[in-house]
Amino acid sequence: MKTTIPKLRRMIRQVISESNYGYGGHEGGSMSGHTGRGSDMPLPEPEDTTIRHWRDFKESVEAGYYDEAKDFLSAIGCDDPMDQEAWLGDGLELSADQLWKEWSHRLSQM
Length: 110
Known about the structure:
Blueprint: H1 5-18, E1 30-31, E2 34-35, H2 54-63, H3 66-75, H4 81-93, H5 96-109
Antiparallel strand pairs: 1-2
Helix pairs in contact: 2-3, 2-5
């Protein structure tokens, strides 16, 4: 089974957030001068999962995170659901560079 980087990051965040000790993972740990049990330490801010590049789009599609991939497409101006489905299919077949080139070509045609 192949695990992508975004999926691995999400799994790690989930394990950290579900653990009884929170950030630090052990009693008596410290974080930025905070001493005490790990469960008393504040949890880190959740990572922003916004897709900012075609590489991230491709990784999200491969990992099955289609809502995030569609949000990226909407943010760049691709709002038509049929076009979004086509881009999701292309995300599995094309490289990130090829996706970017195809998008640039379509923009130049408008």
